[in-house]
Design a protein that fits this description.
mainly alpha; about 110 residues
């Protein structure tokens, strides 16, 4: 198997986004820290994780926890909205990394 070119990260096949990374992301959400959350997500891409990995194994899992915290009263509606807004911005930032499709190609 040929290794990836030096300017591309090694694929993260077989690796999972761990609980420490999830906890760090949730800390960014708790602080409504957009730049920290985006930097964490982009760092995962640089480490070889795919956009799908980051969306499914980090953002979606974190959003379930955000919902749980709101449901149990640990977070207010305002905290939940702020955290969700940060995650939306992370999704936007990740989307920008995959390019755009022409309207006629959908």
């Amino acid at each position: 198997m040929t290794p990836p070119p030096p300017d591309r990260p090694t694929p993260a096949a077989g690796r999972r986004i761990g609980p420490e990374t999830l906890a760090a992301y949730l800390d960014h959400l708790d602080a409504a820290d957009r730049s920290g959350a985006v930097a964490l997500a982009r760092g995962l891409l640089a480490d070889g994780f795919s956009v799908a990995d980051v969306l499914v194994d980090l953002v979606a899992v974190a959003q379930r926890e955000v919902g749980r915290r709101w449901l149990t009263g640990s977070w207010s509606v305002a905290q939940e909205h702020a955290a969700t807004h940060v995650s939306e911005q992370v999704v936007d930032a990740l989307g920008a990394t995959v390019g755009h499709r022409d309207a006629g190609t959908w």
